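Structure first, sequence second, as always.
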C-alpha cells in the first residue's frame, strides 16, 4: 500500500541558511508517481537554481506547482538534447545554476540527460547529482533478492527478433537482471524471458510503484505470462521486471529447446509443450509459444 501524497505546499524559496549553490548543473531526481517522494535537498535546489531544464515543462509543472516552486523552466528532451546541452553550457559559463529533471525518477536512467551531463563535464563545469527516486532502486529494494551482481538492462528492443537476441545474450549474465517494460509488450516480453533465461528463475513484477495501484508480485518466470493474463488490470501501468539469479537446477533455454525439438519431431506443439513443461518445470504457455517457433516449417531466425 503506498502512502498518500503530502498536501500542496506554499510558495517555496531557497532556504535562508543553506550554502549558496555554485554555478553548475544539478541533476535532480524527482518522484516516480507519489509527489511526496522528493528529497528536501532536491526541493531546495529546484527552488534555488536560476532555471530548470525539463524533459517536458508541462509535466514538471505539476510537481513544481505542488511544491510551490516558481523557478523558470525550459525544455531539454531527447529531440533537442544537443542544442539544449550547448545552451546549458553557455548559461553555466555565464554564472547560472541550472537544474536538470526528467519526467520521472533519475535523469539519465532510461531517460535523456547523458548528452547534457557529458557536455557540461567536457566544458570543465561542475555536475552535481541530487539523488532520489528511481524505479530501478525502488523495485530492487522491494525484491528481497540476495545482494550481489545486478545488471540493469532497462528497455529491451521492441522488435521480437532483436529482443530474443538480447535476452539470449543475457542468459549467462551472473546475478539479477532488471528490466523496464511498457504495458503493451509486457506479456510477450516475459514469454521470451522465460524461454531465454529459464522459467524457474524468480520474476518480480513491480507495477505502478508508489502509486494507488502499486503491485509487487513475485513468481517463477515461467508462470508470469499466465498470471498477467489472469486479470487485465495486472497488465496496466508502468512495469519493472526483476529477474532473480539463475541457479544450477534451473533448466536453461538451451535445455528446453533441445527437448522440445526432439518432442516436436513426433508430436504437435501443444503435446510437446505439455510434456516439456512436466520435464523442465517451465510454464506450459511459455513452452507452447516456443514450440510454435521451433516446429518444423516455422520461419527461420525464430
Ligand atoms: N528515469 C526513470 C527512473 O529513474 O526510473 C525511468 C524513466 S523510463 C522513461 C520509464 C520507465 O520506468 C517505465 O516505462 C517503467 O518501466 C519504469 N517506471 C517508471 N516509473 C515507474 C513506476 N512508478 N512503477 C513501475 N515502473 C516505473
Amino acid at each position: 500500500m503506498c502512502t498518500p501524497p503530502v498536501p500542496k505546499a506554499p510558495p517555496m524559496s531557497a532556504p535562508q541558511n543553506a550554502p549558496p549553490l555554485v554555478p553548475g548543473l544539478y541533476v535532480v531526481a524527482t518522484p516516480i508517481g507519489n509527489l511526496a517522494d522528493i528529497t528536501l535537498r532536491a526541493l531546495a535546489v529546484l527552488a534555488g537554481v536560476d532555471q530548470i531544464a525539463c524533459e517536458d515543462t508541462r509535466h514538471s509543472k505539476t510537481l513544481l506547482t505542488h511544491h510551490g516552486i516558481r523557478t523558470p523552466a525550459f525544455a531539454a528532451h531527447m529531440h533537442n538534447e544537443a542544442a539544449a546541452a550547448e545552451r546549458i553550457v553557455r548559461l553555466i559559463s555565464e554564472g547560472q545554476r541550472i537544474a536538470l529533471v526528467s519526467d520521472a525518477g533519475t535523469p539519465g536512467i532510461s531517460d535523456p540527460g547523458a548528452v547534457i551531463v557529458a557536455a557540461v563535464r567536457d566544458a570543465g563545469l561542475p555536475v552535481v547529482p541530487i539523488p532520489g527516486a528511481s524505479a530501478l532502486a525502488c523495485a530492487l529494494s522491494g525484491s528481497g533478492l540476495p545482494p550481489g551482481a545486478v545488471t540493469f538492462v532497462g528497455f529491451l528492443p521492441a522488435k521480437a527478433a532483436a529482443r530474443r537476441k538480447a535476452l539470449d545474450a543475457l542468459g549467462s549474465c551472473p546475478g539479477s537482471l532488471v528490466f523496464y517494460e511498457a504495458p503493451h509488450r509486457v506479456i510477450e516480453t516475459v514469454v521470451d524471458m522465460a524461454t531465454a533465461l529459464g522459467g524457474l528463475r524468480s520474476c518480480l513484477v513491480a507495477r505502478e510503484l508508489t502509486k494507488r495501484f502499486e503491485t509487487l508480485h513475485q513468481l517463477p518466470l515461467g508462470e508470469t505470462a499466465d498470471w498477467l493474463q489472469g486479470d487485465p488490470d495486472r497488465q496496466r501501468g508502468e512495469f519493472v521486471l526483476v529477474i532473480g539469479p539463475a541457479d544450477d537446477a534451473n533448466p536453461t533455454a538451451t535445455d528446453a529447446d533441445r527437448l522440445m525439438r526432439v518432442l516436436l519431431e513426433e508430436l504437435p506443439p501443444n503435446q510437446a509443450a505439455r510434456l516439456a513443461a512436466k520435464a523442465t518445470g517451465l510454464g506450459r504457455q511459455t513452452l507452447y509459444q516456443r514450440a510454435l517457433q521451433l516446429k518444423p516449417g516455422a520461419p527461420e531466425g525464430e
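Margin note: The chain has two domains: 24-133, 134-302.
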